[in-house]
Amino acid sequence: MKKPIYKWALTIAPILYMILIWILSSLPADAIIKTPFSFDRLMKESLHLIEFGILYWLIALAFAANGRWTAKASILAAVISILYGATDEIHQYFVPYRSATVIDLVKDAIGVLVSFYIMKVTYFAVRPSFITSLFKKLNDSE
């Protein structure tokens, strides 16, 4: 049976997003966004939380689109996201005008773990929610 286009899109979305992260990490820190210093620092620091939280959700959707969404898959999505955060920090170590810090990796992991927790208390909880119905539809439409 042919896989619907949205399932293909959800399957490759995390890979494309990881490529985008890699490309953006290859650029100097101020290559894309230049703002006043205080706002710039706050915004860029908070992006670590958001950036890798998004990666977790994209990986989760890819699992669900392929009928493989389980509690173990959720843990795997979190582990992959955090490991990719570590890979990104190592990559940035070798990029001129970038830095790699443990605190950035901690922020990456916090973003992932917050997303993981939201999934745990919504999808894997007793009470149904919007997230539960979305993931069940994707997961069951195999």
What average pLDDT do the residues reach? Answer: 87
> What is the general shape?
globular
The tally of beta strands, per DSSP, is 0
Strand content: under 5%
What does the main sheet amount to?
A: none
Which range best describes the helical content: under 10%, 10-25%, 25-40%, 40-55%, 55-70% or over 70%? over 70%
Radius of gyration: 17 Å
Tell me the number of helical segments per DSSP (H or I, 4 or more residues long).
5
Coarse structural class: mainly alpha
Query: How far is it from the N-terminal to the C-terminal residue, by CA?
Result: 10 Å
SSE string, helix = H, strand = E?
HHHHH
Taking pLDDT < 50 over at least 5 consecutive residues as the criterion, the unreliable ranges are none
Task: Describe it.
The chain has helices at 5-25, 37-65, 71-93, 102-122, 130-140. With 142 residues, the protein is mainly α. Helix 1 (5-25) runs parallel beside helix 3 (71-93) and helix 2 (37-65) crosses helix 3 (71-93). The longest helix has 29 residues, at 37-65. The mean pLDDT is 87.
